[in-house]
Amino acid sequence: MPSYFPLLPSICLHSLNKEIKSSTTLLNNTNNLKEFNQSRKNLKSIYIGTYKLSGLIWELISIKKCKYGEFFDITRNAINVKSNQMVVSLFKIQDEFPTSSRILPKPDSLRVDSSPVAERVSLNYHFEGTTTSYLGEYPYEMANIDKGSFWSFDALKEIPITSKSVKSFLILMNINRDAEKQSEVNLDIYNPHQKDESLHWKARQNSFTVINLEEINKALNSEKIHKTFFIQCKSCNFIPMFLSVDFNNKQLSLEHTHPPHSLLWGRDRLKVIKLLKDRWIIK
Length: 283
Hints:
Blueprint: E1 3-6, E2 11-13, E3 18-27, E4 46-54, E5 57-66, E6 71-75, E7 87-92, E8 100-101, E9 121-127, E10 130-136, E11 138-139, E12 150-153, E13 166-174, E14 184-190, E15 199-204, E16 207-212, H1 213-219, E17 230-233, E18 239-246, E19 251-256, H2 269-280
């Protein structure tokens, strides 16, 4: 399936006068095909168009012609955008990018077979000489969903057991092709054993919502930061990422979680999901 490739937001900590910078690395190569289909690769140049969400319009920033096997890096600090402004890149076989559009253009796919692995790029964070990254994408089908639901948890956060220099952030990403889809939505953040004491947070469509998990612990009056909290939205879907930073040792970690159904296999997996929802989700 075709995909969009976001440029993650920069993370600014004004209290520490620190900034964690972001970039995206793209590659003209079919990286998800079956071995016996190697000869079907597209060895020609492609075009990478990059758009920013400007008001209620997707505005074209740049077009890059990328030869086969060539990398292309987009760094947030090198382009004229805000630290958390939505920026999205996409592949095209032909140089056909509108300069502005309410609807984000449909990307082309480099796939040549039915390999289940999605087209991905490297999503990166940089801090004082250290880089962390993971291979990610935002599926085209997901960008066409106006309403959805979301449920995840913060088990991937780093726990500052001996040092207060470690900070963890939850980054919720939502992309919609329609630039006018920018509604504010509600998040429920809660301890699954005390669901009646949930914390209400705000997020937006077509946006990055960055939450300092230290603030969540303070807001929930939790002294046990190792507890796992759940995050839920009943009206919008997100891709969650967890960024952890050790400011003293200059170490970074970037991870993301998958929806529960993707971790199960078999015809009865929906029954398992129902059991999970009955036990752990706020109704």
